[in-house]
Specification:
This protein is mainly α. It contains 14 helices and no strands. The chain is globular. InterPro entries: AurF/CmlI, Ferritin-like_SF, RNR-like.
Length: about 325
Amino acid sequence: MTPAPNTTADRENDQTVTERRAYEAVIERLSKASVDKHWEPYADIPWDDEDFLVRQDDPRWELPGVDRLGGHPWYRAQPPEVRARIGLWRVATAMKIGLQFENLLKRGLLNYAYRLPNGSPEFRYVYHETIEEGHHGMMFQEFVNRTGLPIRGMPGPLSLLAQITPWIPLISTELFFIFVLGGEDPIDHVQRKTLREGQIRHPLEETIMRIHIAEEARHISFARHYLRRRVPRMPRYRRFTLGIVSPVVLGVMARIMLSPPGSMIRRFRIPEHVVKEVYTDSPETAGQIRDSVAKTRELCAELGMTNPVQRGVWKAMGIWAAPARERAR
């Protein structure tokens, strides 16, 4: 029988060992789940089934009335084929931006894995995640190709600036995994909501979305557990800096993922007043962006990264809401 710890140092050492084992057990479960349940984009999606074919004038692409743009009188006044193309353009752009983000993510994960020591449990999981993100990129690009639309994804200057992202793990792995959550949480939030509310009508979009949600749940879980383990061990000044930078990253990423593509606005000549009513000046859209980062915001609060100064940055980025434990008081 292991004797009880006699000193504070012994108790702290035992706690550290227990926490490490619990953390490694989570990673092992995630790695096992990646083996037990995964999808192959060209084996598990019936791309050429008649019902899954992508046609630009398919009415199933029309935006639902609960969508801010879909319910606007300007959109409802458009011919059915135009409404369908606008809806398809939005879906395809979201997938193109998603595969571009995951391209950056994969390169960053490999930079992180490159320096991991032998025996590191993170190494195996990171490679599982990289493979799954590769599959997501293939299914997203296949979808974009089948639309026949000239989808670009991220604007050129933003795409160029984003090339620094894969190098972030060489500076701060904690900041990199905040970036990961900034790209994955908003999309996960929106996809779960649209499926829950029955807003998806085309089976190809639904199939891709369900695969993405299932595998991203593991990726999000790993990032959260990694941050829970690492952030409390950071020097105070670094944790403070991370708390300042995090809301900037999250606010920018959420807007990239959820805002309407400028190419779509130009292509379909959506009037400026419609864009303002639906997106720019809409309290509902601002609330959606704020809600999309709620889980990461709660995590940052849990990790002590929302002091008054840091909270001011969250408010400036338009994504602050009091943590659940504060609202419960």
